[in-house]
Design brief:
This protein is an alpha+beta fold and about 190 residues long. About 35% of the residues lie in helices and about 15% in strands. It is built from 5 helices and 5 strands. β3 and β4 form a beta hairpin.
Length: about 190
C-alpha cells in the first residue's frame, strides 16, 4: 500500500457506511434501514458527508440528514414544513418554518411505504423549486434592456396637483373628500 492509497479520500457513501458500522447497536441498524428505504424511494439519490460528519441525502437539493444521538436517530428533512405528511411521520422540529424531523427511538418502527412517499414528496418539492428557479433565471436573460431616455424625457417639469373636486352625497350620507397636499418647505440655506 502506497502513501497515496492510504490518504485517498473516501467517498460519502463509504463514510456513511463506516458511521453505521461504528454504531453497533440499534442506532446503526435503524440508520441502515432508513438509508435503504431512501435508496428504494429514489435510485438517483446522492449521498453526501457534510458539517463535520453528518450523512446527507440529496436530489436536486437536500432531502434529509441522518443524525444519531444517544437515545434517538433523527432524520431531518430540509424543507419538511412544505411537505405533505398524511401519515404524520414528522414528530420533531415541528415549530419551525422550514425543517421537520422524524425522531426514531429504540424499538420504534417507521412505516416503510409512508417514509418512501415522504422522500418522493421531498424530491418533487426540490425539483419544482429548481424548475421555478430555472424559469426565473431564463426570463432575466431574455428580458429586453430598458430604452435609454432621451434628453427631452430626462427632466420633466413638476405639475401642481389639481384641487379635489367635491363629491355629491348619496342618500344623505356625507362624503369625505381628499384635501390638497401641502408641499414641504425646504430650510433656508445659511451663509457660513
Amino acid at each position: 500500500m502506497t502513501t497515496s492509497d492510504a490518504k485517498r479520500a473516501r467517498t460519502a457513501s463509504e463514510l456513511i457506511s463506516e458511521r453505521i458500522a461504528k454504531l453497533d447497536d440499534w442506532r446503526g441498524q435503524t440508520l441502515a434501514r432508513m438509508r435503504k428505504l431512501i435508496h428504494q424511494a429514489d435510485t438517483d439519490v446522492i449521498e453526501e458527508w457534510k458539517w463535520m460528519g453528518t450523512p446527507v441525502w440529496s436530489h436536486d437539493g437536500i432531502l434529509c440528514t441522518g443524525e444519531s444521538y444517544k437515545t434517538v436517530v433523527k432524520l431531518t428533512f430540509a424543507k419538511g414544513a412544505a411537505l405533505k405528511d398524511p401519515a404524520r411521520l414528522f414528530n420533531a422540529s415541528l415549530d419551525g418554518n422550514t425543517r421537520r424531523a422524524i425522531d426514531i427511538h429504540e424499538g420504534e418502527q417507521i412505516d416503510a411505504s409512508a417514509f418512501k412517499a415522504l422522500v418522493r414528496e421531498a424530491i418533487a418539492f426540490n425539483q419544482a423549486g429548481k424548475a421555478a428557479a430555472a424559469r426565473k433565471s431564463s426570463s432575466r436573460k431574455t428580458a429586453k434592456p430598458a430604452k435609454k431616455a432621451s434628453a427631452a424625457t430626462k427632466t420633466k417639469p413638476v405639475r401642481k396637483a389639481k384641487p379635489a373636486q367635491t363629491a355629491q352625497p348619496v342618500a344623505g350620507k356625507p362624503v369625505k373628500t381628499a384635501k390638497p397636499m401641502k408641499t414641504a418647505k425646504m430650510p433656508k440655506a445659511t451663509k457660513s
